[in-house]
Design brief:
Layout (H helix, E strand, L loop, with lengths): L1 E5 L4 H12 L3 E6 L16 E4 L5 H11 L3 E4 L13 H19 L6 E7 L21 H20 L3 E6 L1 E3 L8 H10 L4 E3 L5 E2 L1 E3 H11 L9 E4 L5 E2 H12 L5 E3 L17 H7 L7 H14 L9
Parallel strand pairs: 1-2, 1-4, 2-3, 4-5, 5-6, 6-11, 7-10, 8-13
Antiparallel strand pairs: 9-12
Length: 314
């Protein structure tokens, strides 16, 4: 298929671009002129790159019309890393306005499916498994804009019949993840036998390995009949931060001992964060195939070979 992918310069998008190439698809990506494309440096010659920002409606419309993709995978996002992505206007422009611009641009062509990537951040803090029918209660602007974009996509499908499907990703990890995040930063410190400082580590997450996300998207590319749906993409199992760190320590064989409670727990931390996967299992027939140990083994191996990308971040 001829596929247009946004967000390829990011962590999940970069892995998706590689997987699409491996599967034999013709891959077109959009990049801003300010994008640091380090995640794509080894495949940039194999993909079709279009320098355009989705917040530029005229620009993205022209690009979509010229490419005329058979499928669109929308992964561009901003604000998922709140310690370094705090520009409110950029959160609004990218997550909400950018999504609407892309949907409207695609209205001018005939395409098979449009996969809009949203986030489990739509759900907010809850005490049970997160179900697609739950009323969204985001606790930050990132979650709020993702919610708004998802609602727009569903509404647009109801009005026009456009084949748009929305996913809510849970805690994805794997190669090319943002250096400041828990998994890559911990792996790097373990490889170097550096000091390991954490909170009490009892926060929970539904960690999903990037390869499983890719598998889910490949399955969705064949399912335009799921238009208008919202699907959780997680494992249905949650682990504590302490359990994730323990898996990394075991795989790396580090001599470092974690110091639990050395850092304060942040406000609005979640001690329950797990996907209800019943709907996705039923409609898509897909389940995550990677266990935590398997995903960490592959991620640690990749990090050992690519540590240079993470040298500048402490």
């Amino acid at each position: 298929m001829r596929i247009f992918l946004t967000g390829a310069g990011g962590f999940v998008g970069a892995n998706m671009a590689r997987r699409l190439l491996k599967e034999g698809h013709e891959v077109h990506i959009s990049v801003r002129n300010s994008t640091n494309a380090w995640r794509l440096e080894d495949i940039i010659g194999e993909i079709n790159t279009h320098e355009v920002d989705i917040i530029d409606f005229n620009g993205i419309s022209k690009t979509i019309k010229s490419v005329s993709p058979e499928a669109i995978i929308h992964m561009a996002t901003y604000g998922a890393y709140p310690t370094v992505q705090q520009d409110l206007q950029k959160i609004l422009d990218t997550n909400y306005t950018g999504t609407i611009n892309l949907v409207r641009a695609c209205d001018q062509i005939r395409y098979g499916i449009f996969i809009n990537t949203s986030s489990s951040s739509e759900y907010g803090l809850v005490s049970k498994s997160m179900n697609e029918n739950d009323l969204p209660k985001p606790i930050d602007y990132y979650g709020a804009t993702k919610t708004g974009a998802a609602v727009f996509c569903q509404t647009h499908t109801r009005i026009t019949g456009a084949p748009i499907l929305t996913t809510r990703l849970f805690s994805v990890y794997g190669p090319y993840e943002e250096p400041i995040r828990l998994v890559p930063s911990t792996i790097k410190k373990c490889i170097r036998d550096e000091k390991l400082e954490f909170t009490q580590g009892m926060q929970k997450r539904d960690f999903i390995y990037t390869r499983d996300v890719e598998d889910a998207y490949l399955a969705m590319l064949k399912r335009p009949d799921l238009k208008g749906e919202i699907l959780n993409i997680g494992t249905g199992t949650q682990y504590t931060i302490k359990e994730m760190v323990s898996a990394i320590i075991k795989e790396t064989g580090t001599k470092s001992e974690p110091e639990w409670g050395a850092r304060p727990t942040k406000q609005f931390e979640s001690f329950n964060w797990v996907a209800d996967m019943a709907k996705t299992h039923r409609l898509l027939g897909w389940r995550a195939g990677s266990g935590l140990d398997d995903g960490i083994r592959h991620t640690v191996a990749w990090m050992r070979d690519n540590l240079r990308h993470y040298e500048a971040v402490s």
